[in-house]
Each structure stands twice: as C-alpha cells, then as structure tokens.
Amino acid sequence: MLGFAHILNDTIQVVAPYLIGLAVVLWAVAFGSAARRAWRRPLGARRQQSPIFSRAATGFLVILLSLCGASVFISRAALDELRPRLNAAVTEIRVNGAPAADPERLLSALRQIQPHNYHHSHPTTMYRIELQTTEGPLDLLLGRDSTVPNEYWVFYRSFDQAEDVGTVVTDALD
Questions:
Q1: pLDDT digits (tens, 9 = 90+) for 84-131
Q2: Number of neighbours of residue 101 by Cβ within 10 angstroms
Q3: Rounded CA gap, 171 and 152, in Å?
Q4: Which residue, among 70, 58, 67, has the nearest Cα to 27 in the 3D structure?
Q5: Using CB atoms within 10 A of its CB, is residue 162 exposed (0-12), middle (13-18) or buried (19+)?
C-alpha cells in the first residue's frame, strides 16, 4: 500500500493542476448550460436538466472528490509509514540541528500523533525534528499552532501531498 501511496503522491503532484483546470472548465460548462437553459425556458415551464449539464457537473464532482479522497489516502499512508519508525528504539533526537532539551517528552508526544483538529488557525514557528531510529532516520517538521501555543502541526516531507499528517501537544519545544 505504501508503494502505491508514493506513486499516487508523485502522480497527483504532476496532474493535479491539469485536473483542477479541467474541473473549472467543466464547472463553467455546467453553469453556462444551466444558465442558457434557464434563460430560454418560458416562464412557468417545467425544468429539465440538459445532458450537457449533467455530464459536466458529474465530471466536476468526480475530479473534486477524487482529489480529496487521494489527499486523505495519502495522509493516512504517511502516518502508516512513519509510525513504525516513531515506535522503534530512538538513539538520537535533534531539534533544528541541536540535541533536544527533553528528548523523552518530545518522543512521547510524537508517538501520540492525533488527527488534525482544525480551529481556524495555521502553523507559525517551524521546528525541524530529526530522529535516528533502529528503523532508519526520520525527518519531521513541527509547526507551532497560531492559537494553541503547545499544539504543533506535524509535517512528513516524504509525501508532498500529505500536507500535515496530524498534531501533537507538547511543551518540550518551549
């Protein structure tokens, strides 16, 4: 599954702009078709959707939902890939290139990555976390939440499309 997730990630990175452009064109066709039909329909006549509208609107929704579904799949795959390394024995933790002040507390928090709770905030200060584990090295970016100061967004750079893979709550970086 992880191999497929990496292939999907690489593919989406290339084709997403074209799919989004196609979706916008399909939306414009659907909107134009509906507007034209509404403009030409006599007052009080029964509404009937044109096949052009139905196909264009369906294409738009398929593209939109496929991109959203792929994003969710890739985020889950990213978590599945990094969890074994987080749960392995860790020999070293570095924060922005320097040894972590409290590595046990930071590691404990990282092992408890939770799905993201969106509360109209964004990541601010970024910290690069480097872990050396028995399963191999692991590089993460943690971004401090703009409204909850001890909450950090976790970014896993192995997947470009994963965005943030979750959040952790810790005071170990203060």
A1: 989 999 999 999 999 998 899 999 999 999 887 777 888 889 999 999
A2: 12
A3: 10
A4: 58
A5: buried
